[in-house]
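We keep the chain:
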Amino acid sequence: MTKGLRFVENISSLSKSEFETLTKDLNSPFINYDFLSSLELSKCVTSLTGWQPNHLISNESNKLNGFMPLYLKDNSQGEFVFDHSWSYALNRAGRKYYPKLISAIPFTPCESEKIIGNKLNNLFIKEVVEFMNLNKIETWHILFPDKNLKGDLRENNFIERNGYKFVWKNKGYDTFEDYLNIFKSRQRKNIRTERRKISELNIDFEIKDAKNLSHDDWDKFYIFYKNTYEQRFQRPYLNRDFFRMIHDARDSVKPIIFFAKIKEEKIAGSLCFKGGDTLYGRHWGSMYSIDSLHFECCYYQGIEYCINNNIYNFDPGVQGEHKIRRGFEPEITCSYHYIKERDFYNAINDFCKKEREEIKTYLRACERYTPFKKEYKIE
């Protein structure tokens, strides 16, 4: 192992003050000591859930000066970049796809820095590849990295894979009605109809953030969140302990919950996190199936919040074509994949090239499906 580098099995083993000094200029609420440690301490992220922390750090003069989130994975859950077909292919060839290495924020498909520290990209990449060779690991996946890392990944033979998401952009709107003025008349009418359905049911909204969130709010939200997974017969990724820890760290991670209420009873909620000039929509849940409540709670409330608070981007998560008609604009997403053996590398590279062309065609179709007036230009 290169001098000064080492792998650590939990964030809590690192100095919080040193970690925060290292990440102080980052705008992501997810490359955050409290967020990452809450995932681990609550046991949402552990070998039992398929996420074994194995973070790479750099210490210079016994002080933390570099960090990369890294996990050993024995499944492909909670990643939002789907590689199940890759694992089937390698398994059919008589080789093991798992464990694999992942550099990502668990359960969080948001772009963020994945190697933090000055001029450490190539050094960290070399160290992880040596770890792969030593432990006979076939693949390493870096999901949703920042733009500054992409060039070094390409130069180190990572394969670029594209996906897509839909992001709302604030063009200096004064009000939600001002925003609706960029829509064609039919879709403007559809949005107003969806919002009216909620208001006619006497559902109103309460916004809770770091200043006024309570433990009871988190307990309520957890019930809604868990119910969404149970309706799909799935186990939720996050547990009650995680949300309680996030509450304790609320000044650091900046959560915002949009609660839907009938009279004083909370019936649904959407959880976001604020980072820099972006609002990140992450989780939602409801006690009842109510037409248009998801759109209002997860999209329109977030858009209105961004307008009122001069926030430029609203990133509600990956995929979701239904977002187009509500004003979210298509964007390419990226992940990078280091495939150790040449035969599998060639197969994955061909797959990603073909997939990239399909996504380009799909996104061109999305632009033709725009709900905006002709004079409004998508950037």
